[in-house]
Amino acid sequence: MSEPVRESMEFDVVIVGGGPAGLAAAIRLRQLSPQTSVCLIEKGSEIGAHIVSGAVIEPRALAELLPDWRERGAPLDTPVTAEDMFYLTETGSIRVPMLDKVMPHMANHGNYIVSLGEVCRWLAVQAEELGVEIYPGFAGAEVLIERNRVVGVATGDMGVGRDGKPGPNYQPGMELRGRYTLFAEGCRGSLTKQVMAHYDLRKDADPQTYGLGIKEVWEIPAENHRPGLVQHSFGWPLDNGTYGGAWLYHFGENLVSYGFVIGLDYANTWLSPFEEMQRVKLHLAFRQHLEGGRRISYGARALSEGGLQSIPRLTFPGGALIGDSAGFLNVPKIKGTHTSMKSGMLAAEAVVDAMKTDRAEPGSYTQKVRQSWLWQELRTARNIRPAFARFGAMGGAVYAGLDAMVLRGRAPWTLHFKHQDNETLRAADLCAKPFYPKPDGKLTFDRLSSVFLSATNHEEDQPVHLRLKNPSLWKTVNWDVFHAPEARYCPAGVYEVADEQTAPHLQINAQNCVHCKTCDIKDPTQNIDWTTPEGGGGPNYPAGM
Amino acid sequence: MKILVPVKRVVDYNIKPRVKADGSGVETAGVKMSMNPFDEIAVEEAVRLREKGAASEVVVVSIGVQQAQDTLRTAMAMGADRAILVLTDESPEPLAVAKVLKTLVEKEGPSLVVLGKQAIDDDMNATGQMLAGLLGWGQGTFASKVDVVDGRVNVSREIDGGTEQVSLALPAIITADLRLNEPRYASLPNIMKAKKKPLETIPAADLGVDMTPRLTVVSVAEPAERKAGIKVGSATELVEKLRNEAKVI
User: Fold this and answer.
1) Which residues of B touch A254 (CB under 8 A)?
2) A7-69+117-205+312-381 maps to which CATH number?
3) Which residues pair with A300 in a beta bridge?
4) Domain containing B90 — which CATH number?
5) ipTM score here?
6) For residue range A63-114, what is the model confidence (pLDDT) as tens digits?
7) Is A490 a catalytic residue?
8) Considering CB atoms only, which of B12, B18, B188 is closest to A135?
9) Is position B51 within any domain?
10) Do A37 and A210 touch, CB atoms closer than 8 A?
11) Containing H/E element for A473?
């Protein structure tokens, strides 16, 4: 059988993913070496379409990349002016005193509340002005490896029917060949996963541990809006063994970013991150900010929480991992934008080095990372997240306080992660069911009305992009032991149990997928494989996300 | 034969539009924009006519802000040969659009203008008809099938309860309905090639067209939220409720 021939195009550097890391790398490459051809692809329908973040960002890396970012009109418009951290109980809240001493990582003076999607759109304009070719709407579907060197990626075929056969609109994918390929897919990238496996990049690293962030943007009455206010919480409704908390930021024109992050190493199979996120809004500490407002957007995304210990080998013949594909998030700061951008910039420098001598592996990247403030930051922060995994929320908080005030991040030991997140779930009959109130339609909502606000769309007639490697495992493991945890952890209602009473089976509503990647991480046997759907599909997050 | 296809940059059809807090219009800042879907159908039809040999050149035109270039590039990636951007910061009404298009028709001399039947943002459904009126050309609106034969164009029109066949002498105006065709994907190689196709920018003021708005927007509001339904136990209860509560029978 003859396959239609894919077209191919050669570039110096191919970048997969148009988030802060990929765009920063692209900009740095053209700044250092204006004749280098750089092609960046993004699976979202436009740059920013798949970006979800809080986001309070530290402008450090941005200022290094584009020192005149203010003059260029970067959308960093709301400086942080006030911040609170609350420990919540079911009915009350305790404000953490001397926040800058006890939790120095949380000090946000000089930082900005932004829509990271808007920041990325702006970065893309800067990159295009420098001559970067940016192609949104095209998903990297395949890593091209020849003679054990990554030589680029291929975009997915378009117009393939649900049955896997080419439809009337069929367009074959295209090979984007690069001397170097940078993977900037964000947390749990689907191509990054293949590259890590092929080159065994995780060999000397701790398992990666993840969190799931779920976010809403609200528009609230002007009289309640306090631009620059940052509020975080921990404690209720999560139990002592579960890591997570909520955020609330006032920014922009009467907008509030509200969201919730939960560590995906949680144990209770009945837990539903979505419903935890919804019910926190009923707590007075949050309710008072949102009442009278309306919810205008919704999104979700997994993030890497492993930090320093979990960072894999960063380079391989023909390329490197940057941003959250590698796992550069600073967990105690709950920020990854500045570290992602920095890693992209350092990788760009290393690629320019490697091009000079035509070396296959941009090896100086690792060295540059280790010598930068990025490494210092992650090194200082390295024990905090594992302390929570080991000692629980209260113990972890005490450890974090000690680490900050006494050890100052210079502990002579390093705490390690022992488990992958898919190994931590306990069987359904060993777990207590949390009580989740029904949505009231004013402050709290169900999944489907939420997904609607993410403007998610996939071409309906295409193969299901969420694949069960072994379909029979679902019944014996997911259903019989854990009672379908995917139906609860998926924030988009993709997974549904059909015919629960008679012949339970899994129904996958792949069109709802907001590309958060949680199922690829948390499925007990890692039986669910998240692959890229047709480019341009997925959420279309609007301004404000 | 040359074909002119006007295309409009609108809020993407996947986006839930949000009315601005002051009720003055729909929020477009930072919102994803793309080509009006009916215009995509028009571009596809024009490109197919060229591929069949019925036309020699497809020229796309958009009237709007600088970013409308992206929409024109998409049209060229689908197969249009070149593009014209009439640059304005205003959002012109159908009559003004039709007048601008008339000047371009006079300049370019196409035998066929294929438009989308309406734009999904204001749903006016007027530009094609107004342009036909201004030019004194025949029009085949709501087209679901188009054939160019011996200097005439035969159009199947979607009308209430069926289809109507019209045959128009060229030059003519066609507006595309949903079932005319299924537009192709702009493939990555074609998007790359489209970057090199010619795009001419003309400031709207240079055309000397009166674009003064004739309409005033009084207010814009979102539709009232639908109330939740109820389940009834029996047909009798349903009839009772329809009669006494809803008072519809």
Assistant:
1) 21
2) 3.50.50.60
3) A214
4) 3.40.50.620
5) 0.84
6) 999 999 999 999 999 999 999 999 999 999 999 887 777 777 778 889 999 9
7) yes
8) B188
9) yes
10) no
11) helix A473-473
